Amino acid sequence: MRELDDIERYEFKKKLDEIKSCKGQHTELISLYIPPNRRISEVMNYLRNEYSQSTNIKSKTTRKNVLSAIESIMSRLKYFKKPPENGLVFFVGHKTAGANQTEMVTYVIEPPFPVPSFLYRCDSSFYTQPLEDMLTERDVYGLFLIDRRECTIGILRGKRIETIDYLTSRVPGKHGRGGQSQRRFERLIEIAAHEWFEKCGKKISEIFLSEKDLKGIFVGGPGPTKYYFVEGDYLHYEIKNKIIDIIDTGYTDESGLRELVMKISEKMHDLKISQEKRVMRRFLKEITKKKKSLAIYGEDEVRRALEMGALDILLISEGLDRYRVKLVCESCGYEEEKTIDTIEMKKMENNPPKCKKCGGNMVMKEKSEIVEELSKKAREKGTKVELISTDSEEGSTLLSTFGGIAGILRFEV
Ligand code: ZN
Predict the structure, then answer these.
(1) Is a pLDDT exceeding 80 seen at residue 73?
(2) 1 in a domain, yes or no?
(3) What is the pTM of this model?
(4) How far is the CA of 298 from the centre of ligand 1 (A)?
(5) Do residue 126 and residue 146 come from a single domain?
(6) 330: CA distance to ligand 1 center in Å?
(7) Which of 89, 206, 301, 377 could hold 109 in an S-S bridge, CB 3.0 to 4.6 Å?
(8) Distance in Å, CA 334 to ligand 1 centroid
(9) How far is the CA of 308 from the centre of ligand 1 (A)?
(10) Are 83 and 35 in contact (CB under 8 A)?
């Protein structure tokens, strides 16, 4: 799916505004959404049925208008063998045009994104919501900046930075008066700081949770406070899991948001890397937990969890050069599955391994790349698969430290 460019977006929006402005005198404006996979013959049947139902409409004018609208759609639909790539949308009906005057309007739209579901609606206005949803910006990121004095929360929507909230704290500076009251003073500071972080965490979580389809979150601010805050118990776990990167910025106010976006803009192009960083960050965090860790690694352990249906996410490295093979004994039929690398593969071809049971020759019956084989198994079990590149630091860690195969569990096993 490709994103609309600014011009296409503008034109599409204008067209929608025009359609939305149409008003019928009664419920006589028809909106019809046809998804790409829907058969035209099925739609025709549906419309025939609607047509016969509409002959029961009491008001003569409304009945006439509705029937002619359905006729109009059917006559246009005849020219389609199947719906276009993204489906088809019809807006047809008699809109009011001045005193007691109506005018028949017909809009046939091939939308920029696939029509999600079949819909027929007859109302006094056209139903445009599904098309408007296609216009909403898909590239949406959460941003926040934090230190002990300020917190700015923003959202990056496409190219636009919105400042959503700005909070300031009353946490006093760390320099006290010295002497006996110093320790007490420092303790008060820490209490105030804790309260400040709690307040910010609540606000940030609230704002970002209400923003569905947030692709990720970037954190900025000067000094180590932002790390302390992110690692602490202040943010909702879903929000924490969405953090892609933490970056040093000079400011924590509105200008800091721009600074943050400038610094991340290189990374914004590569969403795949962002997603990868996020899931690896989660994995690395899990793995360091002493208790209740949901991270596992190593082929055997991951395979076991996968079979059990306990694996939530499978992390598998692109750099993995291994095969899963099935060997069968020529003499007794004994079968064995094995993971081998390219070198072992070569060896095996020249020098077949011996059967554990009878000593006969084992021959290779099936062979697939391990990435492919494990991903297929994962799909069958409803496990999400993240193919991790070796480009990022996190990605190369997966291959070098964890053997290229790891996972995050749904629950402790
Ligand atoms: Zn055998």
Answers:
(1) yes
(2) no
(3) 0.49
(4) 29
(5) no
(6) 7
(7) 89
(8) 5
(9) 29
(10) yes
pLDDT at 51: 96
Q: Can you give the CATH number for the domain in which 238 is found?
A: 3.30.420.60
Task: Read off the pLDDT of each residue in 172-180 and give the average, rounded to a whole number.
Answer: 63
Report the half-sphere exposure of 173 (CA within 13 A, side-chain side): 3
The answer to whether residues 214 and 204 touch, using CB atoms and an 8 Å cutoff, is no
Final residue of a domain: which of 213, 233, 268?
Answer: 268
From the CA of 374, how far away is ligand 1's center (Å)? 27
Model confidence pLDDT, tens digit, residues 321-351: 889 999 999 999 999 999 999 888 888 888 8
Ligand 1 centroid, distance to 323 Cα (angstroms)? 22
Centre of ligand 1 from the C-alpha of residue 361, in Å: 7
Ligand 1 centre from 365 Cα, in Å? 14
Cα of 354 to ligand 1 centre, how many Å? Answer: 8
pLDDT at 379 over 90: no
- Distance (Å) from CA 373 to ligand 1 centroid: 25
DSSP state of 125: B
Query: What range does the domain containing 150 cover?
Result: 140-268
With beta carbons less than 8 A apart as the criterion, state whether 323 and 341 touch. yes
Please state, in angstroms and rounded to a whole number, the distance separating the CA atoms of residues 361 and 334.
Answer: 10
Could you tell me the distance, in angstroms and rounded to a whole number, from the CA of residue 346 to the centre of ligand 1?
22
Q: The CATH number of the domain where 380 resides is what?
A: 3.30.1330.30
How many angstroms does the Cα of residue 360 sit away from the middle of ligand 1?
A: 5
What CATH number is associated with residue 114? 3.30.960.10
Indicate whether 145 and 130 sit together in one domain: no
Mind listing the pLDDT tens digit for each residue in 236-284? 999 999 999 999 999 999 999 988 887 887 666 554 455 677 788 899 9
Angstrom distance (rounded) from CA 44 to CA 64: 19
The domain tally of the chain equals 3
d(CA 182, CA 136): 54
Residue 74 backbone dihedrals phi, psi, to 5 degrees: -65, -40
Q: For residue 2, what pLDDT band results from cuts at 50, 70 and 90?
A: low
Give the three-class secondary structure for 218.
strand
Examine the fold and report which residue of 134, 168, 197 is the final residue of a domain before the chain moves on. 134
